[in-house]
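Sequence, please.
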């Protein structure tokens, strides 16, 4: 087996262990994941794979490729679960990492490409997205794969049609809309313009490719419009045009431009810490304040870069700058820049190991300390010596106490104990190679400690804590009270374009929860937040409402304390029923 083949198998095994091993252990505990998963659930439940309706009245806010993939995987397993809902993200990240290694190992060197793959897998933002039921990881993978395909097309002299890029762009379009097809074209165009290609011939080539990539999505958009009509068109306008212009009918993730800088810094943890530690050892040149001199240096630097590194830099910068323009900003929007940043970070770490080894070992020592602190906290919590009074009083304190008791009482079988102890195994390998020469294995021992920490978090700590936060238990209690039929919900934070629903409870009840104010039933069961029921009684005085259960649980969807009620409409005296 060649060295390159060995790297491929190691990367594949790392993806399998890091992404697929514990992906279904954590229940849905925020509104984002069940909001996507219930779309696939309604597809299978109602047989409508074009424009399914969920939560009683909702159309899906995103195109359906991600939901189609969930539905296909769930058809094979028999039901939509947390695991099958997160499977498309994990597969997309795995394929992205392996494709990235293949791309850079052919054009640079296998060691840098291998380390790049590991860094992509083990930074906080990408790892979180890879085990999450959201469309963003699939979108990022398809966009980056389209850029790789574009680059190969450029190596062929732009001859023929880059069908691989067309298919990836079409998939990205069907994942989250036109941005998935437009942005890779812009990034590749900027790269070619910097390499001296003429604007108009390049424009018409990429415009034709863009049109080809719209054909498959157009089939779905037409079919969806035939079902949804003007309501569907308004949703498309809201999500794809008004969001970019900052003119949505409701505020959605409004953040300043520097938010993107902060999210990349925090998203690349823990490796951001290594970069910060290394700033003191870098050689600095005197910075020129003359714009022309600075510009000439930049142009000369770009001209001297080889094509692969320039392509990587341009792709990263164009995507980052593009997402700084709209007011709506989220950390996951920047996922496509992470593989490109990981490549430069891999080069940087290998340089630091050769030239400034002490900085690298200092970072490794900090990782060792974090691993020891995590295990020490585990021992203290499991010993039961922490009093409940540590968290004060009140309902929020009660939830924190529930987190503490979950960690104290969680069963620890062989697998759980193994992942809790695993960071110490990684520390052992790091200490073995910390001072050894040559230092070729030192970077991989650092990644190994991060990898072990993520496995410990995913395999024990995270599901233990977040399952307490999840509304899964509430849904199970409701299912015992109302085993079939509709359950109604009432929320005071109702917006026409972005209505709030109990997404998690609805998913676990099989898409049976619908908004009360739309259906106005004569009797039934109602799920409401702690303050919403007072408003309900004022708005609907003709209904009698009796509490059935106070769940003593704060919803992970909207952070309201959930209550369950039985209601029926009271007819005025003397009025015929």
């Amino acid at each position: 087996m060649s060295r390159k083949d060995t790297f491929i198998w190691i990367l594949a095994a790392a993806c399998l262990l890091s992404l697929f091993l514990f992906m279904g252990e954590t229940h849905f505990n925020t509104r984002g994941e069940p909001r996507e998963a219930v779309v696939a659930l309604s597809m299978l439940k109602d047989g409508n794979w074009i424009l399914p309706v969920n939560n009683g009245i909702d159309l899906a806010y995103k195109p359906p490729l991600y939901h189609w993939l969930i539905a296909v995987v769930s058809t094979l397993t028999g039901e939509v679960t947390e695991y099958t809902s997160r499977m498309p993200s994990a597969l997309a990240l795995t394929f992205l990492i392996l494709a990235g290694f293949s791309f850079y190992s052919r054009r640079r060197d296998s060691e840098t490409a291998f380390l790049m793959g590991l860094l992509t897998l083990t930074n906080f933002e990408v790892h979180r997205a890879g085990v999450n039921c959201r469309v963003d990881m699939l979108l990022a993978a398809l966009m980056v794969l389209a850029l790789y395909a574009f680059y190969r097309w450029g190596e062929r002299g732009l001859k023929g049609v880059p069908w691989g890029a067309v298919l990836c762009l079409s998939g990205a379009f069907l994942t989250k809309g036109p941005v998935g097809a437009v942005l890779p074209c812009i990034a590749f165009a900027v790269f070619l313009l910097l390499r001296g290609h003429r604007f108009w011939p390049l424009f018409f080539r990429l415009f034709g490719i863009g049109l080809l990539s719209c054909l498959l999505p157009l089939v779905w958009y037409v079919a969806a419009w035939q079902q949804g009509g003007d309501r569907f068109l308004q949703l498309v306008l809201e999500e794809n045009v008004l969001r970019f212009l900052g003119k949505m009918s409701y505020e959605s993730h409004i953040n300043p431009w520097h938010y993107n800088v902060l999210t990349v810094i925090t998203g690349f943890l823990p490796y951001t810490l290594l970069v910060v530690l290394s700033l003191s050892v870098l050689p600095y040149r005197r910075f020129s304040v003359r714009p022309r001199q600075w510009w000439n240096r930049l142009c000369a630097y770009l001209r001297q870069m080889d094509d692969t590194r320039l392509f990587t830099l341009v792709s990263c910068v164009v995507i980052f700058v593009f997402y700084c323009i709209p007011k709506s900003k989220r950390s996951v929007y920047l996922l496509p820049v992470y593989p490109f940043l990981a490549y430069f970070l891999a080069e940087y770490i290998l340089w630091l190991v050769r030239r400034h080894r002490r900085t690298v070992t200092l970072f490794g020592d900090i990782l060792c300390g974090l691993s020891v602190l995590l295990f020490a906290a585990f021992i203290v919590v499991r010993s039961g010596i922490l009093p409940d009074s540590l968290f004060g009083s009140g309902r929020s304190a009660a939830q924190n106490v529930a987190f503490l008791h979950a960690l104290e009482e969680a069963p620890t079988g062989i697998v759980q104990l193994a992942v809790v102890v695993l960071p110490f195994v990684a520390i052992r390998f790091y200490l073995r190679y910390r001072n050894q020469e040559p230092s070729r294995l030192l970077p991989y021992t650092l990644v190994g400690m991060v990898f072990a920490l993520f496995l410990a978090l995913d395999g024990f700590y995270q599901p233990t804590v977040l399952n307490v936060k999840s509304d899964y238990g509430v849904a199970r209690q409701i299912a015992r009270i109302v085993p079939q039929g509709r359950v109604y919900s009432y929320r005071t934070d109702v917006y026409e374009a972005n209505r709030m629903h109990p997404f998690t409870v609805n998913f676990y009840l099989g898409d049976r929860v619908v908004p009360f104010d739309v259906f106005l039933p004569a009797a039934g069961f109602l799920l409401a937040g702690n303050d919403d029921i007072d408003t309900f009684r004022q708005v609907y005085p003709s209904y009698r409402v009796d509490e059935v259960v106070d769940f003593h649980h704060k919803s992970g969807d909207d952070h309201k304390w959930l209550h369950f009620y039985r209601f029926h409409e009271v007819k005025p005296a003397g009025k015929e029923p």
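Residues 364 and 446 are 6 Å apart (CA to CA).
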